[in-house]
UniProtKB/TrEMBL annotation:
Signal peptide: none
Xref: InterPro entries: Cell_wall_metabolism_enzyme, Dup_hybrid_motif, M23ase_b-sheet_dom
Superkingdom per UniProt: Bacteria
Domain M23ase beta-sheet core per the UniProt entry, residue ranges: 91-192
The protein, known as: M23ase beta-sheet core domain-containing protein
GO MF, one annotated term: metalloendopeptidase activity
Pfam families in UniProt: Peptidase_M23
Length: 344
């Protein structure tokens, strides 16, 4: 004889199943965003910058120094004296992590680790990039594809197509690439969005040299502030990059024609509430051009224009890594960048 389940018990069971169904996506997101450090060096999370970041060589106004701050993400390189104080003209799109171990010759022995679970999509040919030997891994936890990049490597432990877990060794640290010597050996690490699948076409209209790296060329990958992400995640676990990026401070806005393909919105739908026909689009960006939001506009423009920017005591050119001039207009480099980002 079959035993009947009491109605109250059945309803309670259904409620539990419904609650589990609602919670599963949240739990899955939290589990997938399993952010690990790129090496065994954990000084970043202890607040020890000098032990974590590799120094840079600096000669500013005749004074030679070796500041570790230059290894951080952001505007820390090429200091310039301005009326508002010292500004930094060169943007550094990743973190330079110094080694913990070296062999008798002084070469680093540290393994480089995948910072998130994903799939290896690019292993760069040796000697074909300023990054030296580098690897790109694609990650997708439901908010669009993100790409971690690991540069200046000595040797690879993975190939294209390898599925990797967070914290899995993928390479050995080295000092390959332009301007890197043994004493400054490090791994340069980035976490990026991809700007365009049409990068080859864009590249061919502005460069005479071939694009060896395809869509995984560093110019087509735009970095998040990975350093800030680690520190935020250590304090309060981040489960949504989209929500985390909404806290970013915008620096300027560009208005682009309505004909823009806006592949970035198709890849990262959280940038906009939806794509519909409109006269133009307004793209709000942070200091280095990372898009923060895309909104429709009734304004008619025939080419990209700067429609807003944040005032600063420093020259706007330095505040925007050269994308916007001090008069508030897109530079030649800025126009090219917006054309790639917007799909024009």
């Amino acid at each position: 004889m079959r035993r009947r389940i009491p109605c109250a018990t059945f309803l309670d069971l259904m409620r539990r199943l419904l609650l589990l169904a609602l919670l599963c996506p949240l739990l899955s997101s939290a589990q997938v965003f399993d952010l690990k450090l790129p090496t065994a060096n954990d000084a970043l999370l202890k607040g020890d910058g000098p032990d974590y970041f590799q120094f840079v060589d600096r000669n500013f106004e005749g004074q030679v120094s070796y500041p570790w701050e230059g290894g951080q993400f952001g505007f820390w390189r090429d200091p310039r004296r301005t009326s508002g104080g010292i500004a930094y003209a060169r943007f550094h799109e990743g973190m330079d992590v110094k080694p913990l171990k070296r062999d008798g010759r002084g070469d680093p022995l540290d393994d480089v680790l995948a910072i998130l679970p994903g799939e290896v999509v690019h292993v760069a040919p040796v000697g074909k990039s300023n990054y030296g030997s580098y690897i790109v891994i694609q990650h997708n936890w439901g908010e669009g594809p993100f790409y971690s990049l690991y540069a200046h490597l000595k040797e690879y432990k993975v190939t294209v197509g390898t599925k990797v877990a967070a914290g899995q060794p993928i390479a050995r640290m080295g000092y390959t690439g332009a301007g890197i010597d043994q004493r400054r050996a490090h791994v340069h690490v980035e976490l990026n969005i991809m700007l365009s699948s049409q990068f080859d076409l864009w590249h061919s209209t502005g460069f005479n040299t071939p694009n060896v790296q395809g869509i995984y060329n560093g110019m087509n990958l735009l970095g998040l502030d990975l350093q800030a992400l680690y520190l935020s995640h250590a304090k309060t676990p981040v489960t949504s990059i989209a929500a985390w990026l909404k806290q970013s401070v915008p620096q300027f806005e560009v208005t682009v024609p309505g004909s823009a393909r806006l592949e970035i919105v198709k890849k990262y739908p959280w940038l906009a509430s939806g794509i519909t026909a409109t006269s133009s689009w307004k793209i709000k960006c942070n200091r280095w051009g990372l898009p923060l939001s895309v909104t429709p506009s009734a304004q008619t423009v025939s080419a990209p224009v700067v429609s807003w920017y944040q005032e600063s005591k420093f020259p706007l050119y330095y505040q925007t890594r050269g994308l916007v001039s001090n008069t508030g207009k897109l530079t030649v480099e800025g126009l090219r960048f917006v054309q790639l980002m917007a799909g024009l």
